[in-house]
Amino acid sequence: MVDPITWKEDRVLLIDQTRLPAEEVFVEIATYQDMAQAIKTMIVRGAPAIGVAAAYGIYLGAREIQTGDRGEFLSRLDEIAQLLGSTRPTAVNLFWALDRMLKTARETALGVEHLKEVLLETAKTIHAEDLQTCKAIGDCGLSVLPANPDKLNILTHCNAGALATAGYGTALGVVRSAWSAGRLTRVFADETRPRLQGAKLTAWECVREGIPVTLISDGMAAHCMQRGMIHAVVVGADRIASNGDTANKIGTYHLAIAAKAHNIPFFVAAPLSTIDFKLASGAEIPIEERDPAEIYQVGETRLTPVGVEFYNPAFDVTPAAYIAAIITEFGAFAPADLNQLREKQAV
Ligand code: MRU
């Protein structure tokens, strides 16, 4: 399985997700400014992976701070966190990881040089924990997948796979666990316009591991459901409000509506760090809007007439009523029961 993020000697290696599947290129990140840019330009993407990358970003920034004064060090660290936090607004794992790093710095009563070492260890811990978390999500998912038929066709959207996490994935983690347990016939992957994470990344991960995958364009999902080709939908999440409303890649919401219309269970797979208990409902989730060129251009080729206007939200919010269960590392919960997890959240 691919390691999208690796700490190597004194820097971070990121697989460049903007160049997959054509090229497997690793980018070296040695400064927090470069890490912020890598998150913004989606060299690294997917909510948990963004969180891990940002945690390393804090350390990369911390090690450059030239002061022995703790107060000055901490205020400089806040500025670094602000830059990293300004990159992508929707994925709450970014802010969760930054908060955890800053809290560690504030609460560790050590001199600046030792504090820097503690920050690197904390980033490595966040990284390692995410991999374990994804494996636990995969196992929990297995217990809630429909019992019939024995072997399932699972539809997923975007890429919530190894690439979007420290490895293994959330939604694709459930798929991987189902495949290992002999419960999967095939994955249907939505291509996921406009950036095609399904076509480029999910398909790449599945093909590499020999998991049968059929690519469909986004508009084909309801048709496949109507034809009885889909037994469950499993997607990831960028932010889940306390009531279970879930922000995920644009196109997720209409998938949930179509699943309900066809009586197909719709699952969200996400770590506890994706739940934002500060928000009462999905209406409060900030939705990132991206460059319209993502819609009107493929490579260097412009697809649309000049003069047309654009709207390019990167995420939508699926209301909790459409979600059968939210699969976390602590088990699967009905959206109404999410509050049971509140006190488990580390930050
Ligand atoms: O814009 P992206 O590619 O970062 O969006 C990714 C998604 O929407 C994923 O489904 C989500 O982050 C969960 S990743 C485990």
Quick take:
This protein is α/β, with parallel strands linked by helices. It contains ten helices and 16 strands.
- How many beta-strand runs? 16
Report the biggest beta sheet as strand number plus sense, adding barrel if it closes: 7 strands, mixed
Specify the helix fraction band.
25-40%
Q: Treating each run of at least 4 consecutive H or I residues as one helix, how many helices?
A: 10
Q: Could you give the order of strands across the largest sheet? A: 6-5-4-7-10-15-16
Q: Helix and strand string, N-terminal first? A: EEEHHHHHEHEHEHEEEHEEHEEEEE
Span between termini: 30 Å
C-alpha Rg, in Å?
20 Å
* Average pLDDT score: 97
General form: globular
Cofactors, ions, other ligands: 5-S-methyl-1-O-phosphono-5-thio-D-ribulose
The parts where pLDDT drops under 50 for at least 5 residues are: none
Task: Report the sheet-strand fraction.
Answer: 15-25%
| Class by SSE composition | alpha/beta
| Oligomeric composition of the shown chains | single chain
Question: Can you offer a commentary on this structure?
Answer:
This protein is of the alpha/beta class. 38% of the residues lie in helices and 18% in strands. The protein is built from ten helices and 16 strands. The strands form four sheets. It has a seven-stranded mixed beta sheet with strand order 6-5-4-7-10-15-16. Helix 6 (171-180) links the parallel strand 4 and strand 5 (184-190). Helix 1 (32-40) packs antiparallel against helix 2 and helix 2 (47-62) runs parallel beside helix 4 (92-107). The radius of gyration is 20 Å and the shape is globular. Bound molecules: 5-S-methyl-1-O-phosphono-5-thio-D-ribulose. 5-S-methyl-1-O-phosphono-5-thio-D-ribulose (MRU) binds at residues 45-48, 91, 158, 160, 164-165, 170, 197, 236-238, 248-249, 314.
